[in-house]
Design goal:
Rossmann fold; DNA-binding; 3 domains; 434 Repressor (Amino-terminal Domain); alpha/beta; DNA binding (chains A, B); 4-stranded parallel sheet; about 350 residues
Chain lengths: ~350, ~350
DNA sequence: TACGTTTGCACAAATAGTTGCACAGGGTTT
DNA sequence: AAACCCTGTGCAACTATTTGTGCAAACGTA
């Protein structure tokens, strides 16, 4: 392996010049004559010379590596965020190293360790669902490696983060349902220690209060936001003596489950129960009825995270006060929540 | 930055031992006394020592990096494959570096360059749609870096690859449609220079021939397999003097488009036209009717690709004859293709 | 006490590349 | 002709880590 790969030393020997000359020639340094440069470039091509970024990075104290740590990459959301990250990062000359925590803190801790020892120059992270403490991230800080959170952030921490205005998303959704004439709106919520679910719920509550509607305990259903949870939640709601006429769910997956159960029991949406979800998953415009949802600006979130990282790099040394970028959600009204035929 | 990070040298100085002793102590080498090891470990913890994999990699001639190059990671398929790759790779001690070609050869060439200079120990790649030559991959070979293709492979090349038996998938789908009583089956196909689409089409043709049915030119519709293409394809089919009674599409996206158009024109599936797609996208079990599709064993494909890479590493030096792993598809029969109420 | 073995560690070379400094040689200036 | 500068290149040190070799000290045995 090392045998077949030509190094800068090999080039130098064959050309009868010093290693440093080759190095400078390859990087088009002004202190090297054109003729020498051309000789170097020619031989480099002939020998299939491949610069070793590891070695260069070692000397320069840089790796050009950006670490990304997400709970998983199967869904729609993180995938798009990663895409956004990749786009901007590669423009700035960075390669990304992706780790998945699989929603598991232990894994997450290990991943952080891995990224650090890979000498990443920054870490972009969205916390796992099971993360409740911050110790493993402190380590990153101590090494003065830029750390940017996105989407999922531990509350009350003074960290750099790019988040969606989840409260606003929940608020707009619920307000829309109210405007459609719904008077008993249930909420399917996720784990409340996660900022995103807490805020979506808060938006829901705010909208109800604003409309002078009561907050009823029996209209809340907390779960892990899977399709199955949605089915269970809908069963629970339909079993109520006085079932709701709308559901605002903090996830599209549980809303599609709810829809299935609703249909199975012979009801229709939006006529019997209006539905609104969150995340604008691909399938929301493919179900019947199409599901109202909230777009999370996934790609933009990834891009902003990288930009924030780049800013931190620039301002390294100076006192960098943590910044929080808040993206505005986009309510996408589809059939599942349209009870009024608002024509014209 | 380098300032704040303690190196093995710093440890050595503070402890008054040599650098090599620290190195061996950290790796629990038997030639170091327990007391020394303990002193080293203690100080390492105190100084937040972080091993530098770049330097270690340089010395050992290894990077523990595995390159992954995919057309994109937004869909369902590549995402799951990457997940499979990550799982096995991280078990084997590898980190993965992901690049997206965005279905563009130029980008793909650049990505290969990037991965090579990052000193990856192997490259797993699924070609972009626009790739028609092999030159940039030859470079990888010349450097004797294990190269494994998955899913999309240029035909007729003697390379290592993990692919799905796409022909079999197309064959089973079509055969199933025939068994359901369909007599005029159309095919929505993708770019035919890609092995996957060519083979899916071949399976379709084989099944028809086997059943003694004619291959009719007007029943083929070639496109890029988007939802919009599916709509256009369905329009074309419904405009025929004698429309088909079933469609086998090489992608789920175009089949969902076809379904939408079908409904819009007041027809029903499977009653009027039976539908079968390919890829088992998440949404296939959420539409109405649920869509028959072919599962591509995404995660298994990723896992197999890594395993193939590991095998190549082991057998490096000896003559390694290219291997091709063929995974068997899994036909998932759902409502959109069930015309017979096969009970019991 | 002499010899052999083991133990624990230091030294130095090696990995690939970058960079400050020095130096040679030529041309220009005074 | 001496002093000067500029250009192009080489030398050596430096990045963090690993690893083969070798040297002392300690220990056991004869």
């Amino acid at each position: 392996m090392a045998r077949t790969r030509a190094s800068i030393t090999d080039l130098a020997q064959q050309l009868g010049v010093s290693v440093s000359t080759v190095s400078r020639a390859l990087s088009d340094h002004p202190g090297i004559s054109d003729s020498t440069k051309k000789r170097v470039w020619k031989l480099a091509k002939e020998l299939h010379y491949q610069p070793n970024h590891l070695a260069a990075g070692l000397r320069k104290g840089r790796s050009n590596l950006l670490g990304v740590l997400v709970p998983h990459i199967d869904g729609h959301f993180f995938t798009l965020v990663v895409k956004g990250i990749e786009t901007i990062a590669s423009k700035a000359g960075y390669n990304i190293m992706i780790c998945q925590s699989n929603e598991d803190v232990t894994h997450e801790r290990k991943n952080i360790e891995t990224l650090l020892s890979a000498q990443v120059e920054g870490i972009l992270v969205s916390m796992s669902r099971t993360t409740r403490d911050f110790k493993h991230f402190e380590k990153v800080r101590k090494q003065e490696i830029p750390l940017v959170f996105f989407d999922r952030v531990l509350d009350g921490l003074d960290v750099n983060a790019v988040v969606l205005d989840d409260r606003e998303g929940g608020y707009q959704s619920t307000k829309h349902l109210i405007a459609q004439g719904c008077r008993r709106i249930a909420h399917f919520g996720g784990p409340q220690h996660l900022n995103i679910y807490k805020n979506r719920r808060q938006g829901y509550v705010d909208a109800l209060l604003e409309a002078g509607m009561p907050i009823e305990e029996e209209l809340f259903f907390y779960c892990d936001m899977t399709l199955e949870d949605g089915i269970a939640g809908m069963q629970q709601m339909l079993a109520l003596p006085h079932p709701p006429d709308a559901i605002f769910s903090a996830s599209d997956f549980s809303v599609v489950g709810a829809l299935q159960e609703l249909k199975r029991q012979g009801f229709r949406s939006p006529q019997d129960i209006a539905l609104a979800g969150f995340s604008n998953e691909t399938f929301t415009s493919l179900t019947e009825p199409m599901l109202t949802s909230v777009d999370q600006r996934c790609e933009q979130m990834g891009q902003s995270a990288v930009r924030l990282f780049l800013e931190m790099l620039e301002e390294r040394g100076s006192i960098f006060s943590p910044r929080r970028i808040v993206l505005q959600p986009d309510l996408l009204i589809r059939t599942s929540s349209q009870r009024l035929t608002t024509k014209g």
